Amino acid sequence: MSPKAKRAVRTALQTLAAVAAVLPALAAIVADSSELAVAAPWLIAAAASAAVVAGVVARIMAAPAFERLLDRFGIGLRDDRTGGTGA
After folding, report:
1. 48: exposed, middle or buried (C-beta count within 10 Å: 0-12, 13-18, 19+)?
2. Mean pLDDT of all residues in the chain?
3. Contact of 55 with 14, CB cutoff 8 Å
4. End-to-end distance of the chain based on CA atoms, in angstroms?
5. What DSSP string runs through 12-50?
6. 59 in helix, strand or coil?
7. How do residues 44-62 score in pLDDT, each as one tens digit?
8. Residue 36, C-beta contacts closer than 8 angstroms, at least 6 positions apart
């Protein structure tokens, strides 16, 4: 798997983990409201969609042209042979 693809997958997993951390609180709110219970499937789909979108955005941000744009603002990453970021 290419480093760009790995970054995209890692970002999607990080987003999914963040959403999963909020799900118990969301479930408690939904349990207290019958109106929100109807929206629960939609909320789960929205959470999954957020993880997918985050992965796609991470993949786009790994493109060389986008990386050069980020470098202009001082927030780009450059891969070195050790797998870290170089200056």
Report:
1. middle
2. 76
3. no
4. 24
5. HHHHHHHHHHHHHHHHHHHHH-HHHHHHHHHHHHHHHHH
6. helix
7. 788 788 888 888 888 887 7
8. 29, 30
